Automatic annotation (TrEMBL):
One Pfam family cited in the UniProt record for this chain: HTH_5
Protein name as catalogued: ArsR family transcriptional regulator
Lineage: Bacteria, Bacillati, Actinomycetota, Actinomycetes, Micrococcales
Keywords: DNA-binding
Every HTH arsR-type domain range: 5-99
Gene3D superfamilies listed in its UniProt record: Winged helix-like DNA-binding domain superfamily/Winged helix DNA-binding domain
DNA-binding as UniProt keyword: yes
UniProt organism field: Agromyces atrinae
Length: 111
């Protein structure tokens, strides 16, 4: 798609920016980039309460970035579209352009 962005494009981009502006939400998206997870597993991995996780997942669902899939008594969350994983990887690489010293070493997933 080329040309001038519409107000719809602008609103969608702003919604994405809002979702990414919170460190917990960004961490959730990066975790789900690797594999689907339950809210309790995400809460434990990220060191937040289940209530905080519930609120953040609600926000991400509202933005259209994640979806919940029922599996018996559990709900597994995953990225709403496989292209989001690639886009998050691209954003991580962009972080290195903006801030080359942001991370380094074996744990860095930017490159």
């Amino acid at each position: 798609m080329t040309g001038t962005a519409t107000l719809t494009h602008t609103a969608a981009l702003a919604r994405l920016g809002s979702a990414l502006s919170d460190e917990t939400r960004a961490s959730i998206l990066l975790a789900l980039r690797d594999a689907p997870a339950t809210p309790s597993d995400l809460a434990e991995a990220l060191g937040v309460s289940r209530q905080v996780m519930s609120n953040q997942l609600t926000c991400l669902r509202g933005c259209g970035l994640v979806e919940g899939v029922k599996d018996g008594r559990n709900t597994w969350y995953r990225l709403a579209d496989a292209e989001l994983a690639d886009a998050l990887g691209d954003l991580l690489r962009l972080v290195l352009v903006v801030d080359p010293d942001c991370c380094s070493g074996d744990g860095c997933t930017c490159a």
